[in-house]
Amino acid sequence: MANSQDIEAIVRQVLSSMSGVSATSSSSNATASSFNSGASFGAGPSYDIPKTAHVAMLTALGHYDIKEFPIPPVGDNDILVKVEGCGICGTDAHEFRKDPFNLIPVALGHEGTGTIVKMGKNVTKDSAGKPLKVGDKIVTCMIFKDDPDITMYDLNKQNVGDADVYGLVPDDERHLNGWFSDYIMIGREGSTFFNVSDLDLDSRILIEPCAVLIHAVERAKSTCILRFNSRVAVQGCGPIGLICVAILRTMGITQIVTVDGNAQRLEFSKKLGATGTVNFKDFNGIEALTQGVKDQFGGYLADFAFQCTGSPAGHSNIYKFIRNGGGLCELGFFINGGDATINPHFDICSKEITTVGSWVYTLRDYATTFEFLKAAQRDNIPIKELITHKFALKDINEAHEFNLAQKGLKIAIVNE
Ligand SMILES: NC(=O)c1ccc[n+]([C@@H]2O[C@H](COP(=O)([O-])OP(=O)(O)OC[C@H]3O[C@@H](n4cnc5c(N)ncnc54)[C@H](O)[C@@H]3O)[C@@H](O)[C@H]2O)c1
Ligand SMILES: [Zn+2]
Protein backbone atom coordinates (compact mmCIF):
# COMPACT_ATOMS: atom_id res chain seq x y z
CA MET A 1 0.00 0.00 0.00
CA ALA A 2 1.30 3.47 -0.82
CA ASN A 3 2.29 5.62 2.15
CA SER A 4 1.87 9.37 2.24
CA GLN A 5 5.34 9.96 0.79
CA ASP A 6 4.60 7.64 -2.12
CA ILE A 7 1.35 9.46 -2.77
CA GLU A 8 3.13 12.78 -2.59
CA ALA A 9 5.67 11.54 -5.13
CA ILE A 10 2.96 10.24 -7.43
CA VAL A 11 1.02 13.52 -7.28
CA ARG A 12 4.17 15.47 -8.04
CA GLN A 13 4.95 13.18 -10.98
CA VAL A 14 1.45 13.63 -12.41
CA LEU A 15 1.61 17.41 -11.93
CA SER A 16 4.99 17.57 -13.57
CA SER A 17 3.84 15.58 -16.56
CA MET A 18 0.98 18.09 -16.94
CA SER A 19 3.06 21.21 -16.48
CA GLY A 20 6.47 20.11 -17.76
CA VAL A 21 8.01 21.19 -14.44
CA SER A 22 10.59 18.95 -12.78
CA ALA A 23 8.94 16.42 -10.51
CA THR A 24 11.73 16.58 -8.02
CA SER A 25 12.08 19.43 -5.59
CA SER A 26 14.16 19.78 -2.49
CA SER A 27 11.48 21.60 -0.53
CA SER A 28 8.91 18.86 -1.03
CA ASN A 29 11.23 16.23 0.32
CA ALA A 30 10.83 17.30 3.91
CA THR A 31 10.84 13.81 5.37
CA ALA A 32 14.14 12.81 3.81
CA SER A 33 16.64 11.65 6.36
CA SER A 34 20.16 11.98 5.00
CA PHE A 35 22.49 14.20 3.06
CA ASN A 36 21.47 12.31 -0.03
CA SER A 37 17.92 13.54 0.07
CA GLY A 38 16.76 16.72 -1.58
CA ALA A 39 17.40 17.96 -5.09
CA SER A 40 18.19 15.19 -7.54
CA PHE A 41 18.90 15.44 -11.24
CA GLY A 42 16.70 13.64 -13.70
CA ALA A 43 13.00 14.44 -13.55
CA GLY A 44 10.99 11.84 -11.70
CA PRO A 45 9.72 11.14 -8.23
CA SER A 46 11.91 11.86 -5.23
CA TYR A 47 12.72 9.16 -2.77
CA ASP A 48 13.60 9.02 0.87
CA ILE A 49 17.09 7.67 1.10
CA PRO A 50 18.25 6.06 4.33
CA LYS A 51 21.62 6.87 5.89
CA THR A 52 22.87 3.33 5.52
CA ALA A 53 22.70 0.43 3.09
CA HIS A 54 22.78 -3.30 3.78
CA VAL A 55 25.24 -5.24 1.68
CA ALA A 56 25.70 -9.02 1.65
CA MET A 57 29.49 -9.37 1.76
CA LEU A 58 31.07 -12.73 1.14
CA THR A 59 33.52 -12.58 4.06
CA ALA A 60 34.74 -16.19 4.05
CA LEU A 61 34.31 -19.27 1.90
CA GLY A 62 30.68 -20.36 2.16
CA HIS A 63 29.65 -17.39 4.29
CA TYR A 64 28.04 -13.98 3.75
CA ASP A 65 27.66 -11.32 6.44
CA ILE A 66 25.04 -8.61 6.03
CA LYS A 67 27.10 -5.45 6.59
CA GLU A 68 25.72 -1.98 7.11
CA PHE A 69 27.55 0.86 5.38
CA PRO A 70 26.82 4.59 5.11
CA ILE A 71 25.36 5.53 1.73
CA PRO A 72 27.98 7.86 0.26
CA PRO A 73 27.07 11.17 -1.37
CA VAL A 74 25.83 10.75 -4.95
CA GLY A 75 28.41 12.40 -7.23
CA ASP A 76 27.74 14.07 -10.58
CA ASN A 77 28.33 10.82 -12.50
CA ASP A 78 26.71 8.46 -10.02
CA ILE A 79 23.43 6.60 -9.93
CA LEU A 80 22.07 5.37 -6.62
CA VAL A 81 19.77 2.40 -7.08
CA LYS A 82 17.36 0.84 -4.60
CA VAL A 83 17.76 -2.86 -5.32
CA GLU A 84 14.66 -4.92 -6.02
CA GLY A 85 16.25 -8.27 -6.75
CA CYS A 86 19.20 -10.21 -8.10
CA GLY A 87 19.62 -13.71 -9.48
CA ILE A 88 22.24 -16.12 -8.17
CA CYS A 89 24.60 -17.05 -11.00
CA GLY A 90 26.90 -20.05 -11.40
CA THR A 91 29.76 -17.57 -10.94
CA ASP A 92 28.37 -16.58 -7.53
CA ALA A 93 28.23 -20.26 -6.64
CA HIS A 94 31.90 -20.67 -7.60
CA GLU A 95 32.85 -17.60 -5.58
CA PHE A 96 30.84 -18.83 -2.60
CA ARG A 97 32.57 -22.21 -2.62
CA LYS A 98 36.10 -21.45 -3.79
CA ASP A 99 36.67 -17.71 -4.38
CA PRO A 100 38.51 -18.45 -7.67
CA PHE A 101 38.85 -14.71 -8.40
CA ASN A 102 40.42 -14.10 -4.97
CA LEU A 103 37.94 -11.32 -4.17
CA ILE A 104 36.92 -12.01 -0.54
CA PRO A 105 35.69 -9.80 1.11
CA VAL A 106 33.41 -8.94 -1.79
CA ALA A 107 29.91 -7.61 -2.46
CA LEU A 108 28.58 -10.16 -4.96
CA GLY A 109 25.49 -10.19 -7.18
CA HIS A 110 25.58 -9.13 -10.86
CA GLU A 111 22.17 -10.26 -12.18
CA GLY A 112 20.43 -7.42 -10.37
CA THR A 113 17.91 -4.70 -11.01
CA GLY A 114 16.25 -1.88 -9.12
CA THR A 115 14.90 1.66 -9.09
CA ILE A 116 17.01 4.77 -9.57
CA VAL A 117 16.48 6.85 -6.44
CA LYS A 118 19.04 9.56 -7.11
CA MET A 119 21.31 10.55 -10.00
CA GLY A 120 24.16 12.96 -10.58
CA LYS A 121 23.67 15.84 -12.99
CA ASN A 122 25.89 14.32 -15.69
CA VAL A 123 23.72 11.22 -16.08
CA THR A 124 20.94 11.77 -18.59
CA LYS A 125 20.90 8.69 -20.81
CA ASP A 126 21.55 4.97 -20.59
CA SER A 127 24.19 3.12 -22.63
CA ALA A 128 21.79 2.77 -25.56
CA GLY A 129 21.02 6.50 -25.57
CA LYS A 130 17.61 6.10 -23.93
CA PRO A 131 16.70 8.93 -21.51
CA LEU A 132 17.07 8.10 -17.85
CA LYS A 133 15.34 9.66 -14.87
CA VAL A 134 14.86 9.07 -11.19
CA GLY A 135 12.25 6.34 -10.75
CA ASP A 136 13.37 4.34 -13.78
CA LYS A 137 14.22 0.65 -13.50
CA ILE A 138 17.77 -0.19 -14.39
CA VAL A 139 20.22 -3.05 -14.95
CA THR A 140 23.98 -2.84 -15.27
CA CYS A 141 26.10 -4.49 -17.94
CA MET A 142 29.88 -4.30 -17.88
CA ILE A 143 32.32 -1.73 -16.55
CA PHE A 144 34.60 -1.15 -19.48
CA LYS A 145 38.18 -0.14 -19.14
CA ASP A 146 39.73 1.56 -22.12
CA ASP A 147 39.53 -0.99 -24.93
CA PRO A 148 37.49 0.63 -27.73
CA ASP A 149 36.91 -2.76 -29.34
CA ILE A 150 34.75 -3.88 -26.47
CA THR A 151 33.21 -0.57 -25.54
CA MET A 152 31.65 0.08 -28.93
CA TYR A 153 27.95 -0.52 -29.22
CA ASP A 154 28.43 -2.77 -32.19
CA LEU A 155 27.03 -6.19 -32.94
CA ASN A 156 30.24 -7.37 -34.53
CA LYS A 157 32.60 -6.36 -31.79
CA GLN A 158 34.20 -8.89 -29.50
CA ASN A 159 32.50 -10.07 -26.35
CA VAL A 160 32.90 -8.28 -23.06
CA GLY A 161 34.98 -10.98 -21.39
CA ASP A 162 37.78 -8.66 -20.32
CA ALA A 163 35.61 -6.05 -18.66
CA ASP A 164 34.63 -5.73 -14.99
CA VAL A 165 31.14 -6.18 -13.66
CA TYR A 166 29.32 -4.84 -10.62
CA GLY A 167 29.10 -7.75 -8.20
CA LEU A 168 32.56 -9.04 -9.10
CA VAL A 169 34.84 -6.08 -8.35
CA PRO A 170 37.20 -5.72 -5.39
CA ASP A 171 35.74 -4.00 -2.36
CA ASP A 172 36.51 -0.28 -2.01
CA GLU A 173 35.70 2.55 0.38
CA ARG A 174 32.20 2.92 -1.10
CA HIS A 175 31.35 -0.78 -0.59
CA LEU A 176 28.04 -0.53 -2.52
CA ASN A 177 29.36 -2.51 -5.50
CA GLY A 178 27.17 -5.61 -5.67
CA TRP A 179 23.50 -6.29 -6.27
CA PHE A 180 23.08 -8.60 -3.24
CA SER A 181 22.20 -5.51 -1.21
CA ASP A 182 19.42 -3.01 -0.69
CA TYR A 183 21.30 -0.13 -2.38
CA ILE A 184 24.00 -0.14 -5.06
CA MET A 185 25.99 2.83 -6.37
CA ILE A 186 26.68 2.84 -10.10
CA GLY A 187 29.56 5.25 -10.43
CA ARG A 188 32.71 3.60 -11.67
CA GLU A 189 34.18 5.04 -14.84
CA GLY A 190 33.16 3.03 -17.90
CA SER A 191 29.96 1.71 -16.31
CA THR A 192 27.24 0.61 -18.73
CA PHE A 193 23.59 0.47 -17.70
CA PHE A 194 20.19 0.22 -19.33
CA ASN A 195 16.76 1.68 -18.71
CA VAL A 196 14.49 -1.37 -18.54
CA SER A 197 11.42 0.27 -17.02
CA ASP A 198 9.21 -1.56 -19.51
CA LEU A 199 10.09 -5.01 -18.14
CA ASP A 200 8.69 -6.62 -14.99
CA LEU A 201 10.94 -7.62 -12.10
CA ASP A 202 11.33 -11.32 -12.97
CA SER A 203 12.18 -10.54 -16.59
CA ARG A 204 14.73 -7.99 -15.44
CA ILE A 205 16.38 -10.54 -13.13
CA LEU A 206 16.73 -12.90 -16.10
CA ILE A 207 18.38 -10.37 -18.45
CA GLU A 208 22.00 -11.30 -17.76
CA PRO A 209 21.70 -15.08 -18.31
CA CYS A 210 19.43 -14.47 -21.31
CA ALA A 211 22.09 -12.21 -22.86
CA VAL A 212 24.49 -15.17 -22.74
CA LEU A 213 22.11 -17.09 -25.02
CA ILE A 214 21.32 -14.16 -27.30
CA HIS A 215 25.05 -14.02 -27.93
CA ALA A 216 25.31 -17.79 -28.41
CA VAL A 217 22.50 -17.72 -30.97
CA GLU A 218 24.18 -14.83 -32.79
CA ARG A 219 27.37 -16.89 -32.86
CA ALA A 220 25.39 -19.86 -34.17
CA LYS A 221 23.82 -17.72 -36.89
CA SER A 222 27.30 -16.68 -38.05
CA THR A 223 27.72 -20.26 -39.38
CA CYS A 224 24.74 -19.73 -41.73
CA ILE A 225 23.53 -23.22 -40.78
CA LEU A 226 20.86 -22.21 -38.26
CA ARG A 227 17.61 -21.57 -40.14
CA PHE A 228 13.86 -21.46 -39.48
CA ASN A 229 13.45 -25.09 -40.52
CA SER A 230 16.60 -26.40 -38.81
CA ARG A 231 16.46 -29.37 -36.48
CA VAL A 232 18.20 -28.13 -33.37
CA ALA A 233 19.52 -30.20 -30.45
CA VAL A 234 20.10 -28.47 -27.11
CA GLN A 235 22.18 -30.50 -24.70
CA GLY A 236 21.83 -29.52 -21.03
CA CYS A 237 18.61 -28.26 -19.47
CA GLY A 238 19.94 -26.05 -16.72
CA PRO A 239 18.95 -22.37 -16.95
CA ILE A 240 21.40 -21.88 -19.84
CA GLY A 241 20.00 -24.67 -22.04
CA LEU A 242 16.41 -23.83 -21.14
CA ILE A 243 16.83 -20.18 -22.10
CA CYS A 244 18.42 -21.37 -25.33
CA VAL A 245 15.26 -23.34 -26.12
CA ALA A 246 13.04 -20.33 -25.39
CA ILE A 247 15.10 -18.07 -27.66
CA LEU A 248 15.06 -20.59 -30.51
CA ARG A 249 11.30 -20.83 -30.11
CA THR A 250 10.74 -17.07 -30.24
CA MET A 251 12.91 -17.02 -33.38
CA GLY A 252 10.44 -19.33 -35.06
CA ILE A 253 12.46 -22.56 -34.92
CA THR A 254 10.02 -25.41 -34.48
CA GLN A 255 12.09 -28.59 -34.23
CA ILE A 256 14.01 -28.54 -30.95
CA VAL A 257 15.17 -31.65 -29.10
CA THR A 258 16.64 -31.37 -25.61
CA VAL A 259 19.07 -33.85 -24.02
CA ASP A 260 19.61 -34.15 -20.26
CA GLY A 261 19.51 -36.73 -17.46
CA ASN A 262 16.99 -34.85 -15.35
CA ALA A 263 13.40 -35.77 -16.23
CA GLN A 264 11.89 -32.71 -14.52
CA ARG A 265 14.13 -30.30 -16.44
CA LEU A 266 13.42 -32.11 -19.70
CA GLU A 267 9.71 -31.78 -19.03
CA PHE A 268 10.07 -28.05 -18.37
CA SER A 269 11.99 -27.66 -21.65
CA LYS A 270 8.78 -28.67 -23.45
CA LYS A 271 6.94 -25.73 -21.85
CA LEU A 272 9.62 -23.43 -23.26
CA GLY A 273 9.42 -24.83 -26.78
CA ALA A 274 11.18 -28.21 -27.03
CA THR A 275 9.36 -30.55 -29.37
CA GLY A 276 11.18 -33.68 -28.22
CA THR A 277 13.27 -34.76 -25.23
CA VAL A 278 15.95 -37.40 -24.69
CA ASN A 279 16.91 -38.63 -21.23
CA PHE A 280 20.44 -39.95 -21.63
CA LYS A 281 19.89 -42.22 -18.65
CA ASP A 282 17.45 -44.24 -20.74
CA PHE A 283 20.17 -45.22 -23.24
CA ASN A 284 23.16 -47.46 -23.01
CA GLY A 285 26.12 -46.14 -24.98
CA ILE A 286 26.57 -43.33 -27.45
CA GLU A 287 25.14 -45.19 -30.43
CA ALA A 288 21.86 -45.88 -28.67
CA LEU A 289 21.77 -42.29 -27.39
CA THR A 290 22.37 -40.94 -30.91
CA GLN A 291 19.55 -43.12 -32.18
CA GLY A 292 17.37 -41.66 -29.40
CA VAL A 293 18.07 -38.12 -30.65
CA LYS A 294 17.45 -39.18 -34.24
CA ASP A 295 14.12 -40.74 -33.33
CA GLN A 296 12.99 -37.46 -31.80
CA PHE A 297 13.73 -35.70 -35.10
CA GLY A 298 11.74 -38.29 -37.06
CA GLY A 299 14.78 -40.23 -38.19
CA TYR A 300 17.20 -37.32 -38.81
CA LEU A 301 20.27 -36.02 -37.05
CA ALA A 302 20.39 -32.40 -35.90
CA ASP A 303 21.35 -29.65 -38.33
CA PHE A 304 22.67 -27.65 -35.45
CA ALA A 305 23.42 -28.29 -31.77
CA PHE A 306 24.02 -26.14 -28.69
CA GLN A 307 26.24 -27.66 -26.00
CA CYS A 308 24.99 -26.24 -22.68
CA THR A 309 26.51 -28.59 -20.08
CA GLY A 310 29.84 -28.13 -18.31
CA SER A 311 30.53 -31.81 -18.89
CA PRO A 312 33.49 -32.90 -21.08
CA ALA A 313 31.58 -36.13 -21.82
CA GLY A 314 28.75 -33.92 -23.05
CA HIS A 315 31.14 -32.21 -25.45
CA SER A 316 32.42 -35.55 -26.74
CA ASN A 317 28.91 -36.87 -27.29
CA ILE A 318 27.35 -33.94 -29.08
CA TYR A 319 29.20 -34.34 -32.40
CA LYS A 320 27.42 -37.65 -32.87
CA PHE A 321 24.02 -35.93 -32.79
CA ILE A 322 24.89 -33.60 -35.71
CA ARG A 323 24.48 -34.40 -39.42
CA ASN A 324 27.24 -34.09 -42.02
CA GLY A 325 27.73 -30.41 -42.78
CA GLY A 326 25.95 -29.36 -39.60
CA GLY A 327 26.94 -26.82 -36.95
CA LEU A 328 27.79 -26.70 -33.25
CA CYS A 329 27.85 -23.89 -30.72
CA GLU A 330 29.83 -24.79 -27.58
CA LEU A 331 29.00 -22.50 -24.68
CA GLY A 332 28.93 -24.84 -21.69
CA PHE A 333 32.35 -24.16 -20.22
CA PHE A 334 32.49 -20.91 -18.30
CA ILE A 335 35.26 -22.38 -16.17
CA ASN A 336 37.86 -25.00 -16.99
CA GLY A 337 36.02 -28.30 -16.77
CA GLY A 338 38.93 -30.36 -18.11
CA ASP A 339 39.71 -31.86 -21.50
CA ALA A 340 37.26 -33.67 -23.75
CA THR A 341 38.05 -36.46 -26.18
CA ILE A 342 36.87 -36.29 -29.77
CA ASN A 343 37.78 -38.19 -32.88
CA PRO A 344 38.97 -35.53 -35.34
CA HIS A 345 38.29 -37.76 -38.34
CA PHE A 346 34.77 -38.90 -37.50
CA ASP A 347 33.59 -35.90 -35.47
CA ILE A 348 34.85 -32.89 -37.42
CA CYS A 349 36.84 -33.61 -40.56
CA SER A 350 34.73 -36.13 -42.46
CA LYS A 351 31.48 -34.59 -41.18
CA GLU A 352 32.57 -31.02 -42.00
CA ILE A 353 31.02 -29.67 -38.85
CA THR A 354 31.28 -25.92 -38.38
CA THR A 355 31.97 -25.13 -34.74
CA VAL A 356 31.72 -21.81 -32.90
CA GLY A 357 32.48 -21.04 -29.28
CA SER A 358 30.45 -18.51 -27.34
CA TRP A 359 31.45 -16.53 -24.28
CA VAL A 360 29.34 -13.99 -22.40
CA TYR A 361 27.91 -11.28 -24.69
CA THR A 362 28.44 -7.94 -26.35
CA LEU A 363 26.86 -4.74 -25.13
CA ARG A 364 24.56 -4.85 -28.13
CA ASP A 365 23.30 -8.32 -27.10
CA TYR A 366 21.86 -6.73 -23.96
CA ALA A 367 19.49 -4.57 -25.97
CA THR A 368 18.44 -7.59 -28.06
CA THR A 369 17.74 -9.45 -24.83
CA PHE A 370 15.13 -6.89 -23.73
CA GLU A 371 13.24 -7.49 -26.97
CA PHE A 372 13.53 -11.28 -26.55
CA LEU A 373 11.97 -11.07 -23.07
CA LYS A 374 9.05 -9.08 -24.47
CA ALA A 375 8.68 -11.59 -27.32
CA ALA A 376 8.63 -14.48 -24.83
CA GLN A 377 5.80 -12.77 -22.97
CA ARG A 378 3.94 -12.11 -26.23
CA ASP A 379 4.31 -15.77 -27.28
CA ASN A 380 3.26 -17.05 -23.83
CA ILE A 381 6.60 -18.75 -23.27
CA PRO A 382 6.79 -19.07 -19.48
CA ILE A 383 10.42 -17.98 -19.25
CA LYS A 384 9.79 -16.37 -15.84
CA GLU A 385 9.06 -19.81 -14.36
CA LEU A 386 12.81 -20.33 -14.55
CA ILE A 387 12.94 -18.41 -11.27
CA THR A 388 11.82 -21.27 -9.07
CA HIS A 389 12.73 -19.89 -5.63
CA LYS A 390 13.07 -16.45 -4.06
CA PHE A 391 14.90 -15.64 -0.83
CA ALA A 392 15.20 -12.48 1.28
CA LEU A 393 18.60 -10.78 1.50
CA LYS A 394 18.98 -11.86 5.14
CA ASP A 395 18.68 -15.50 4.03
CA ILE A 396 21.40 -15.27 1.39
CA ASN A 397 23.56 -18.04 2.92
CA GLU A 398 20.59 -20.41 2.87
CA ALA A 399 19.81 -19.33 -0.72
CA HIS A 400 23.33 -20.23 -1.84
CA GLU A 401 23.25 -23.61 -0.08
CA PHE A 402 19.89 -24.26 -1.73
CA ASN A 403 21.36 -23.30 -5.08
CA LEU A 404 24.38 -25.57 -4.60
CA ALA A 405 22.07 -28.47 -3.77
CA GLN A 406 20.49 -27.89 -7.23
CA LYS A 407 17.02 -27.96 -5.76
CA GLY A 408 15.64 -25.38 -8.17
CA LEU A 409 16.54 -23.72 -11.46
CA LYS A 410 17.17 -20.01 -11.04
CA ILE A 411 17.30 -18.82 -7.43
CA ALA A 412 16.85 -15.09 -6.78
CA ILE A 413 17.32 -12.75 -3.85
CA VAL A 414 14.35 -10.41 -3.77
CA ASN A 415 14.00 -7.42 -1.46
CA GLU A 416 10.70 -6.40 0.05
N1 LIG B 1 29.44 -19.30 -22.36
C1 LIG B 1 29.11 -18.53 -21.37
O1 LIG B 1 29.31 -17.32 -21.43
C2 LIG B 1 28.45 -19.11 -20.16
C3 LIG B 1 27.72 -18.26 -19.29
C4 LIG B 1 27.09 -18.82 -18.20
C5 LIG B 1 27.21 -20.18 -17.95
N2 LIG B 1 27.94 -20.98 -18.79
C6 LIG B 1 28.11 -22.43 -18.56
O2 LIG B 1 26.98 -23.11 -19.09
C7 LIG B 1 26.83 -24.35 -18.40
C8 LIG B 1 25.35 -24.56 -18.09
O3 LIG B 1 24.94 -23.61 -17.12
P1 LIG B 1 23.63 -23.89 -16.24
O4 LIG B 1 23.49 -22.75 -15.30
O5 LIG B 1 22.50 -24.23 -17.12
O6 LIG B 1 24.17 -25.19 -15.44
P2 LIG B 1 23.40 -26.39 -14.73
O7 LIG B 1 24.45 -27.15 -14.00
O8 LIG B 1 22.21 -25.89 -13.99
O9 LIG B 1 22.87 -27.28 -15.95
C9 LIG B 1 23.62 -28.22 -16.63
C10 LIG B 1 22.68 -29.33 -17.10
O10 LIG B 1 23.43 -30.24 -17.90
C11 LIG B 1 23.01 -31.56 -17.60
N3 LIG B 1 24.09 -32.48 -17.96
C12 LIG B 1 25.26 -32.70 -17.33
N4 LIG B 1 26.00 -33.60 -18.02
C13 LIG B 1 25.28 -33.93 -19.12
C14 LIG B 1 25.53 -34.79 -20.23
N5 LIG B 1 26.65 -35.49 -20.34
N6 LIG B 1 24.56 -34.87 -21.18
C15 LIG B 1 23.42 -34.16 -21.10
N7 LIG B 1 23.15 -33.33 -20.06
C16 LIG B 1 24.07 -33.23 -19.09
C17 LIG B 1 22.69 -31.53 -16.11
O11 LIG B 1 21.80 -32.57 -15.74
C18 LIG B 1 22.08 -30.13 -15.95
O12 LIG B 1 20.67 -30.14 -16.07
C19 LIG B 1 27.69 -24.27 -17.16
O13 LIG B 1 28.79 -25.18 -17.26
C20 LIG B 1 28.14 -22.84 -17.11
O14 LIG B 1 29.43 -22.68 -16.56
C21 LIG B 1 28.55 -20.47 -19.89
ZN1 LIG C 1 25.76 -14.40 -14.33
Could you characterize the architecture of this molecule?
α5 crosses α11 and α6 packs parallel to α7. It is built from twelve helices and 17 strands. The longest helix is centred in the first third of the chain and has 16 residues. The strands form three sheets. Strands 3, 5, 6, 7, 8, 9, 16 and 17 form an eight-stranded mixed β-sheet that branches. The protein is 29% helix and 24% strand. With 416 residues, it is of the alpha/beta class. The chain folds into two domains: 226 residues, Medium-chain alcohol dehydrogenases, catalytic domain (Quinone Oxidoreductase, Chain A, domain 1, Alpha-Beta Complex), CATH 3.90.180.10; 148 residues, Rossmann fold (3-Layer(aba) Sandwich). The two termini are 12 Å apart. β1 and β2 form a beta hairpin. The N terminus is likely disordered. The protein binds nicotinamide-adenine-dinucleotide (NAD) and zinc ion (ZN).
